[in-house]
């Protein structure tokens, strides 16, 4: 079967439907799943293109709702072409692009239109878009909702780039009033400057502990306390991005129990990497909030198992190698961001499978809940009739090593280089078309823009 060609049916001995894995055939028509049949009930019609994948697992494609593509403006960091190829190679069929670090950022309707233009004809998977909340752009929010953004993101601390300033309490109240009744969602980078000494520890800048001490747990805890109060006051959907500190989990639970429509994600790096193992000067491990200790990591895993954390994303945030300051190894000066878009599924499975997580948990945390957050829950993230035929076909038992030659991100710098992971992606199907198989891509980008229809009320996960 040629790459890029339509697939009429996918047959596997291991299709994940709900919580069960069983032999089945997915019938695909017009890019949608039409029906799911047992092998015995399937009769192949003449001209029917059947993709038989044997014992490989067939699951809904991954929906990664936290990706920094950086186009337009910073295409030396990443771009739609390279980011979406990397996504396809990792079984990711939908990404949601963050409003920064592109120039201009997605903070106005005009800037959104510019980003849509830049993305046209360059996407190998489907792409939705977050807008941004910055001081003074409150009158842009409803026009952007009507234009199809999935929701909005703001920072409670310096974002790292000048063109996306962080918000003060006044800006948050103003934005919340605009979002009330729209059904939209506000995402928070939840760290706050709460200590005058933060960032000024005076230790050796090449030691990871110096950087870690400059971003203590209390910065996340106090920011999340603010978010929880706003969420309860306005009853606007709120979402905590990249939770790093397990110390904030009780606050989140308490707010939810009080009726706050509040969700939370964590990332692959907080689940796969820990502070104790970061070498001197290894600035490819720097991100904000920081990777914390192993005891904290185990608490995050426990929270995933109990449903206290709703989803897992990449927070793919690449840059050019020079910005990582590898020569000096200075954690305080290096760009904070980790590249992992291509490897989210095997990163998660390598650790989750050792903790008795099942394949159904992978779908819930990496596909279904991320699709729901982004307003795509009726199209993406489930194997059921009427949903887009977005599939990842993979071998959970097969191990492989991450090598530079197989990384499809524009910049190959990642803390995972040399890691051996479990779970090899064999093929990716996007709306019924084979877009990736065994290291090769279809020649034309077949992804499309996903403009989210305006929601009403509170869509719960």
Characterization of the model:
This protein is of the alpha/beta class and 461 residues long. It is 25% helix and 22% strand. The chain contains 11 helices and 18 strands. It has helices spanning 80-89, 109-119, 141-147, 169-179, 208-214, 217-234, 249-257, 268-272, 294-306, 344-352, 359-373, and strands at 9-17, 20-29, 32-37, 50-52, 57-60, 62-67, 92-97, 126-129, 131-132, 152-155, 185-189, 237-240, 262-267, 311-313, 391-401, 420-430, 433-437, 440-441. The mean pLDDT is 95.
Outline:
The chain has 461 residues and is of the alpha/beta class. It contains eleven helices and 18 strands. The chain is 25% helix and 22% strand.
Descriptive terms for the model:
nine-stranded mixed beta sheet; six-stranded parallel beta sheet; alpha/beta; 461 residues; single chain
């Amino acid at each position: 079967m040629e790459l890029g060609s339509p697939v009429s049916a996918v047959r596997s001995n291991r299709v994940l439907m709900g919580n069960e894995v069983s032999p089945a055939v997915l019938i695909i028509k017009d890019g949608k799943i039409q029906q799911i049949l047992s092998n015995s009930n399937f009769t192949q019609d003449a001209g029917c293109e059947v993709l038989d994948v044997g014992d490989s697992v067939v699951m809904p494609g991954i929906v990664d709702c936290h990706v920094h593509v950086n186009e337009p403006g910073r295409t030396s960091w990443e771009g739609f072409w390279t980011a979406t190829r990397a996504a396809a190679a990792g079984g990711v069929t939908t990404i949601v692009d963050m409003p920064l670090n592109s120039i201009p950022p997605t903070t106005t309707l005009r800037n959104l239109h510019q980003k849509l233009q830049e993305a046209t004809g360059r996407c190998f998977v489907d792409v939705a878009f977050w807008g941004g909340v910055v001081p003074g752009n409150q009158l842009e929010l409803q026009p952007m909702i009507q234009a199809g953004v999935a929701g909005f993101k703001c920072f409670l601390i310096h974002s790292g780039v000048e063109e996306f300033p962080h918000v003060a309490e006044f800006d948050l109240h103003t934005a919340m009033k605009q979002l009330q009744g729209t059904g939209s969602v506000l995402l928070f980078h939840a760290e706050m400057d709460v200590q005058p000494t933060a960032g000024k520890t005076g230790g050796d800048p090449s030691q990871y502990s110096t950087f870690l001490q400059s971003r203590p747990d209390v910065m996340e805890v106090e920011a999340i306390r603010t978010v929880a109060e706003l969420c309860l006051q306005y009853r606007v959907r709120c979402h905590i991005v990249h939770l790093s500190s397990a110390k904030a989990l009780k606050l989140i639970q308490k707010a939810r129990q009080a009726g706050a429509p509040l969700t939370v994600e964590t990332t692959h790096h907080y689940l796969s990497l820990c502070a104790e193992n970061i070498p001197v000067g290894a600035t490819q491990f720097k991100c904000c909030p920081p990777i914390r200790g192993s005891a904290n990591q185990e608490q995050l895993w426990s929270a995933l198992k109990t449903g206290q954390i709703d989803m897992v994303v990449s927070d793919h945030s690449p840059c050019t190698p020079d910005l990582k300051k590898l020569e000096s190894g200075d954690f305080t000066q290096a760009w904070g961001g980790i590249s992992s878009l291509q490897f989210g599924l095997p990163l998660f499975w390598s650790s989750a499978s050792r903790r008795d997580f099942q394949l159904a948990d992978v779908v819930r945390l990496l596909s279904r809940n991320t699709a729901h957050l982004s307003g795509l829950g009726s199209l993406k993230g489930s194997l059921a009739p009427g949903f887009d035929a977005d599939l990842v076909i993979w071998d959970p038992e097969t191990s492989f090593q991450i090598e530079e030659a197989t990384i499809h991100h524009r910049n190959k710098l990642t803390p995972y280089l040399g890691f051996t992971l479990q779970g090899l992606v064999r093929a990716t199907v996007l709306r019924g078309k084979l877009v990736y198989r065994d290291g090769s891509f279809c020649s034309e980008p077949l992804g499309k823009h996903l403009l989210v229809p305006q929601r009403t009320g509170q869509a719960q996960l």
